[in-house]
Design goal:
Helix content is 73%, strand content 0%. It contains nine helices and no strands. Helix 1 packs across helix 7. The longest helix is centred in the middle third of the chain and has 17 residues. The radius of gyration is 16 Å and the shape is elongated.
Length: 131
């Protein structure tokens, strides 16, 4: 959540009151992301299940690759989803674009980014499946 708070602060030019309002809206009734950060991580599991279903239906080769490596998809996606990708991208501008998408599209922005990464990186990822 620190990544999300930091991004919001940067995005609103460090206006702490405005940052709090944005965070409250994202976690509350508008974005409903609070369950992503609660102790049971319900939203994390739900989003991971959604992506796993998509992998089975649309990208079975990638699903097989992930399953064969034995890393649960939820574990693989925990960092990017909880940190809103801010722990991966080096450019603050890229992170702010992700935040913009999150504000506009809510959780589907995060799911869409993950699907896009899997789809666009498919050839490189499948290299790991070769013996």
């Amino acid at each position: 959540m620190n990544f999300l708070c930091g991004l919001i602060l940067i995005g609103v030019d460090f206006d702490e009151v405005l940052a709090f309002v944005v965070l409250e809206h994202l976690l509350g009734g508008y974005g409903q992301l609070a369950s992503l950060y609660e102790s049971q991580l319900r939203k994390l599991f739900s989003l991971s299940d959604h992506i796993y279903t998509w992998l089975i239906q649309e990208e079975p080769q990638l699903e097989k690759l992930i399953s064969n490596h034995g890393v649960p998809l939820t574990t693989l996606l925990a960092g990017p989803l909880l940190a809103v990708f801010a722990n991966i991208f080096e450019s603050v501008d890229t992170c702010l674009l992700v935040l913009d998408r999150l504000i506009l599209q809510k959780e589907m922005a995060l799911v869409g980014i993950i699907k896009h990464v899997f789809s666009s990186m498919k050839p490189q990822l499948l290299e790991y499946a070769k013996p």
